[in-house]
């Protein structure tokens, strides 16, 4: 007895597991579906829907490709073909179908899925084809497998999707301006594009370029009338972002309001327009922040190489690091927005995932130098190994650090020339920082003198030289010294140590000390008739150049 009681429950459970939705009748208001209409698989249904629109736009047969259960049977013959035609228009304008994901099996079982997939080995009775955004909410274009009581199961557009067709067509169907075009321009040309799209896209691009040029000219003229420096700088900073915004605005109005382009073009234009808007907004934020920081700090009006601006050098370097971090955050944020708005990745998502390893290697190899330089610039700015305004000796060149950019360090040589060094190379090369920590330093003047020179007389002479120099440039004179550091057949090596207070002026101070010291030594040699400098003949070149006559 218990077995008979369990039998109905078992049958009901087995029935619920069938890969279709059972109904009493499918579209009872329509005549019988023609035998040639293929609805056996999801791909066959979509192919029949799109092909019937091209071969016979008024065909009544395509109404059988929709689940019209929510319509009164008397309305189905009139409304069914119209809804199918509107759906085809929306799909062509807003979707790029991935036919590889629209399965060509009656049970919609994906045999290519891995065992880790949630639907691996499962027979499907509903299949998502695409999603189209409507008022900020995605609307699913979905196929359902329906089995009427008296016939075999078939695949049709789900009734939930059919409910949304009028609203989708109102949003993405032909605009008022498109309906005014001649019928010849509304015919299909190639690549599933209409003739008005072929001719209209270049014209729209030209109009966007003219709008950008007009915006740049207007901002330039308005900026000339600005009286304050910060206002002029703000107009200059906003020029490029406003040009990008004007171009994106014209493209957005032309492709989403005045006309509605097909899905193939929309897949490219939508992320492009989003990228322009995001780039313009983020560039405006970064540029305005930099203008404000420049006005607050006033570093451009300071000579950061001077000793009294030691704190300002540290502050300028830290602000430069904050700018870099801000730019990186802004870039990542904008990149995420653009990716979120790009339907392209939904279409080719599986292909990208399949080639993610190779793509990562290619992008990583191509961007390795840029990423290395960016990280190195942040490292320098954060650890303060070289600050803006510091005096450094880089590869025997005496320079000031002018700028620490993302990819290069700009150094100003003592003669005014600029050295542009990649940040990674600068950070990995040993250099002398004369300003770091204790700015006081000893400049050593090295002389080769005669062995019989009077060292005590040299010390007295050196003290006289130090007295003639500007004492504001000198440190504690007790640090000065005269030392004999070596000798050879030519003479003795004598070092004169000049204590300097500011490394930025120490080079000039050492030059003045050397000039005065040479003059004093020459005077002593002349007055006392004692050899100060060794009498050494220049070395003979073993391979002298041949004369022209020879």
Class per helix and strand makeup = alpha+beta
Characterize the main sheet.
Answer: 5 strands, antiparallel
Distance between the termini: 129 Å
Residue fraction in strands: 5-15%
Query: How many helices in DSSP terms?
Result: 16
Can you tell me the overall shape?
elongated
Mind explaining what this structure looks like?
This protein has 550 residues and is an alpha+beta fold. Helices cover 50% and strands 14% of the residues. The strands form three sheets. It has a five-stranded antiparallel beta sheet with strand order 8-7-6-5-9. A hairpin with a 5-residue loop joins strand 3 and strand 4. Helix 3 packs across helix 4 and helix 15 crosses helix 16. The relative contact order is 0.05.
Structure keywords:
550 residues, alpha+beta, 5-stranded antiparallel β-sheet, 4-stranded mixed β-sheet, 16 helices, 14% strand, disordered N terminus
Compact overview of the structure:
With 550 residues, this protein is of the alpha+beta class.
Describe how the helices and strands are arranged.
Blueprint: H1 2-16, E1 21-23, H2 42-55, H3 76-94, E2 126-134, E3 137-148, E4 154-157, H4 159-172, H5 176-179, H6 195-224, H7 229-258, H8 263-297, H9 310-341, H10 344-347, H11 349-354, H12 356-366, H13 368-383, E5 391-394, E6 397-404, E7 408-413, E8 418-422, H14 423-428, E9 432-433, E10 441-449, H15 455-468, E11 481-487, E12 492-500, H16 503-528
Parallel strand pairs: 1-3
Antiparallel strand pairs: 2-3, 3-4, 5-6, 5-9, 6-7, 7-8, 10-12, 11-12
Helix pairs in contact: 3-4, 3-8, 6-7, 7-8, 8-9, 9-13, 15-16
């Amino acid at each position: 007895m218990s077995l008979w009681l369990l039998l109905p429950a078992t049958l009901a459970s087995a029935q619920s597991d069938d890969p279709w939705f059972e109904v009493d009748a499918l579209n009872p208001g329509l005549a019988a579906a023609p035998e040639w209409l293929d609805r056996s698989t999801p791909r066959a249904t979509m192919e029949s829907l799109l092909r019937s629109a091209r071969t016979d736009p008024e065909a009544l047969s395509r109404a059988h490709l929709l689940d019209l259960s929510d319509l009164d049977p008397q309305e189905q013959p009139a409304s069914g073909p119209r809804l199918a035609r509107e759906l085809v228009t929306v799909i062509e304008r807003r979707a790029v179908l991935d036919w590889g994901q629209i399965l060509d099996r009656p049970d919609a079982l994906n045999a290519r899925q891995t065992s880790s997939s949630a639907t691996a080995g499962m027979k499907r009775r509903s299949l998502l084809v695409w999603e189209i955004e409507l008022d900020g909410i995605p609307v699913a274009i979905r196929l359902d497998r329906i089995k009427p009581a008296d016939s075999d199961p078939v695949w049709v557009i789900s009734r939930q999707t059919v409910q949304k067709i009028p609203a989708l067509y109102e949003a993405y169907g032909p605009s008022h301006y498109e309906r005014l075009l001649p019928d010849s321009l509304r015919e299909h040309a190639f690549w599933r594009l209409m003739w008005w799209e072929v001719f209209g896209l270049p014209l729209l691009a030209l109009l966007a370029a003219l709008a950008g040029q007009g915006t740049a000219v207007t901002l330039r003229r308005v900026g000339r009338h600005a009286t304050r420096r910060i206002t002029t700088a703000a107009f200059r900073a906003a020029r490029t972002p406003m040009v990008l915004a004007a171009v994106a605005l014209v493209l957005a109005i032309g492709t989403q309001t005045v006309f509605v382009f097909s899905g193939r073009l929309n897949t490219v234009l939508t992320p492009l327009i989003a990228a322009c808007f995001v780039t313009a907004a983020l560039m405006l934020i970064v540029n305005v922040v930099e203008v404000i920081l420049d006005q607050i700090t006033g570093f451009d009006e300071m000579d950061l190489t001077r000793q009294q601006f030691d704190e300002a050098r540290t502050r300028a370097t830290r602000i430069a690091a904050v700018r870099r971090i801000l730019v990186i955050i802004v870039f990542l944020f904008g990149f995420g927005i653009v990716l979120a708005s790009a339907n392209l990745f939904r279409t080719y998502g599986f292909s990208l995932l399949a080639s993610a390893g190779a793509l990562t290697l290619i992008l990583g190899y191509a961007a390795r130098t840029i990423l290395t330089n960016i990280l190195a610039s942040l490292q320098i700015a954060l650890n303060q190994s070289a600050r803006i305004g510091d005096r450094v000796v880089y590869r025997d060149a005496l320079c000031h650090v002018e700028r620490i950019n993302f990819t290069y360090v700009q150094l100003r040589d003592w003669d005014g020339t600029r050295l542009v060094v990649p940040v990674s190379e600068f950070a990995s090369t040993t250099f002398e920082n004369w300003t770091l920590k204790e700015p006081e330093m000893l400049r050593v003047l090295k002389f080769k003198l005669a062995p019989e020179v009077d060292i005590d007389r040299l010390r007295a002479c050196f003290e006289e030289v130090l007295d003639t120099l500007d004492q504001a440039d000198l440190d504690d004179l007790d640090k000065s010294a005269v030392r004999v550091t070596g000798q050879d057949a030519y003479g003795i090596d004598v070092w004169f140590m000049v204590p300097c207070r500011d490394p930025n002026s120490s080079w000039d101070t050492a030059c003045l000390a050397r000039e005065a010291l040479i003059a004093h030594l020459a005077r002593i040699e002349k007055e006392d008739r004692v050899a100060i400098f060794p009498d050494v003949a220049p070395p003979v070149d073993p391979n002298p150049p041949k004369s022209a006559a020879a």
